[in-house]
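Exercise (ungraded).
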Amino acid sequence: MLKALSEGWRLLTQHKKAVLFFYLANLMVAALLLVPFMEAFDRSLGPGLYREQMVNSLDYDWYALFRDRVTGFASTFAPWVMGAGPFAKNLETLLDGEITDFPWEILSVGGLYVLLQTFLLAAALGSFALDPKGTSAREFFRNGATYFGRFLRLSILALVTFWVIDGWVIGPLTSLANDLAEGALTDRGAFYWNLSRYLLLLVIFMVVNMLFDYAKIKAVVEDRTSMALSLLSGISFCKTYFFPAFALYLGIAGAGVVGVLVYTGVEHVLPQQTWIPILLAILWQQLYVIGRLSIKLFFYTSQMQFFVEREGLQPQHGIG
Amino acid sequence: MLTSKNILIRRGFPVALLSFWMSMVGMPQSAPISLEEESIIEEDLSILSDRILDYRIEVDLDPVNKTVKGHEILTWNNRSGQSIQNFCFHLYLNAFRNNRSTFVREGRFQSLWSSEKEIPENYWGFTQVDSVQVVPPGRQVTGLDYIHPDDDNEEDRSVLMVQVDEPLPPGEAIQFRIDFESKLPRGTRRTGWAEDYFFMAQWFPKIGVFEEDGWNCHQYHRSTEYFADFGVYDVSLTVPGDFVVGATGKRMSEQENDDGRVTYRYYQEDVHDFAWTASPRFLERRQVFTDPVLPEVEMTLLLLPEHEHLEERYFTATDHALRYYGRWFGAYPYPTITVVDPGYRSSSGGMEYPTFLTGGTHFWAPANVLRPEDVTIHEVGHQWWYGMSASNEFEESWLDEGLNSWSESRVQKTAYSPSRYMVRFFGGIPFVFNSLEIPFETASLSGVRRSGQADIMTRRGWEYRNRPSYRTNSYSKPEMILWTLERWLGEETMLEAMRTFFQQYHFKHPTTQNFIDTFNEVAPQDLDWFFEETFFSSELVDYAIGAARSTRIPQPEGIFDDGHVLPSNPREDEEEDEEDRQREYLTEVVVERLEGARFPVDVLMVFDDGEEIRRSWDGQDRWHRYSFQKPVRLEYAVVDPDRKLLLDIDPTNNSRYRSSDEGFALATRKWAFKWLFWLQNLLETISFLA
């Protein structure tokens, strides 16, 4: 496992461009809504003193008014955009199966992002597998074109799988947890039931995500064209090597959690009342995003190394 | 401060029996008695209220069948000037008897236990009257009929009319013995059981209030609370031996019976309700409230084990409430107060009864979020607004909830730092955002903004359009009105008026008009216009600066009286120094009234050189313009700069800069990028699924 991590890290460092492309995609897609959001937010400040007062901190009277009056995607703004709030909010939304409850604008950019991600992942994994020492931009995008169709089919399979999980697992599990919580004698007992539900769902999501990671890896390393078979093969691999594979997955996920804690800790102490500190805070946010995307790719490079090592494979063009 | 001391003749009778005797002969409790022949002993017990009734109740709790069974002996004094043959009783628990009650109907038949797919039979509750007799024998009960004075719902059983053969003349008393059984519902709407926790509220046949035009005895409505006369309660409760009990009043005795069950006797004078609780899980804690100017009170806390670490927070909140309500309005006159930490999912939390209340908390309660403090202070506060004032909660719900909401936030503001904004994720993990304070005075403004136009505040509780309107007009709007009134009158006058209102009307069922009259008297100014705009109107308040501009006044041109004709295009010819030019600006500020309510407001205009000009506008028209000619430009203008008009639903339009920077404010950029960051992470979360 350690070898997979070290080789994975080496492979990632050879493909720094991939991180950049992922970051640009993330930023550009998110930024599609930035200006409309700023317009809505700026209007909500009114023409007077709130425009200055709100630089220092959120004002509760303003927020209550904003919450009462603003509609559309801008209404997703809330005080939990501060600190660790975004991470908790997004993870809870995912585990509650409520991703589709967002306004259509958010879902639209989400859909666009999924498509872009699929292409970029195809490009990245293709590059990791075919050009371990790094690629040019042209080669990177050519790899993307090569594997995009397969990865798109896998993405659809993944969406269907999570949709099934939503209906067959999240729903019943939530119902069960609610029943248990309501039968609890104390609020502490109810809390533990609910927390257990979230933890169990998190494990399920991670396992399913891991299965699809290996399906993607197999699609590239073994040059598979049937994604259903690729998925089944990925499941088979994970079944054989479940514990080390999941340990590897958890180890990298742990690095992600550390990243969140570091981000939150620094963000909390950054004074953000004038332009330069605000800019620094924005840069710090974007550094975190770059870090998060790096960890995402590190998942793939490490898992790819793990896969190749375990299978004793010589992939098409010599990974590792 | 206690009310006037009464001088009583003591002949060796317990004071309670003496009161009972006096009530039987219809003597006003506060009238002095002849001093000629008897020795006079000045008691430090005051008879605080007109004790119209006296309840002696003896009941048994059966925790297996969830029933409370026994009897009550009710002595009721006819203080009216009329003979009465019909007597009206509330049987509140019958609201939970089935889904055809008025209570359930007004909730649009929403299930009382919405989390249950099928409702088990033992979830329903009721009060069954087994027999009603007049004691001692004399009059006969000739009829028992369920009536529905408020609607046409013949299936509602929450009001019972008892008829007797001979009318009761004015000044006389009648005594009923009522045998009853109350089946407790599964915890719903303030009462019932939750596993081994029992909370008994509105659990016994409770006589209504007889007024000039008859019985005030409303059905149990979805959005109303209760109304009853003052009197004496002497209640014996028999429970299993391992149960810990708390109740209204002082515990007078505790007796273990042969079967291992224990009978607790509670007694309290000058109250209008009796509630109690029992559970084997309670931890019982006691502290004593002391204050240099207020009387001691024994505080009892019944705490659930999982909240044991919150004991001090409960006590501190109770202490603060007793202290500040006592100093501001009048001393708490009872020897005891009991605070109950309610059972999980019992629906009994956050509720008030005389000398007895329920709080509410979560085991993971961050220190800088004021829960359980807020609910505890609120419910202790109800001992004044409701407990001692005893206003009609059916018909004037704001008179207890609104007054108390304002008082509660006042205590919090005095005793604590502001609560912080908190969100719970993953089923209960608190995320506290320390930089976002929740202001004490304006936290309720959102309710006014959303639902303030649906109804006028002073309508009967069950006639509000819907539950949000009830809550806004009972809690949020009166609270905001009172904060605005305080800003208007000043703290000292406000407290004086509130203290006068309380002192004059406690134990006397005050009304809205009493409140208005008190304020007009104490202010002293005619505040009728204020109450017209707030109590009796559903219009909202919103003043704004509609325009703020400074236009440079050009150099004179044209024909003037001295015949001098200036060039038609003077600017091209000007070459004088900057200093020689007398730049003048015409500043115009337009203040607007955007909603229907009218209040006088101040307008503050601040100029670039720091000069401030303040004007007052009566706020009657839709707009008003101020104009100034000055050598400097306006920087900004503010309407209501001192934020007196806390009812104003939109504070963001209260000010306007003369010119705003092009582009987005710095605040917009800051918060928008935080939102962008959340969105970037959300996109990654979404892509996790694919």
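Further reading is listed at the end of the chapter. For now, observe: Chain B touches chain A through 70 residues (CB under 8 Å). Chain B is about 25% helix and 30% strand.
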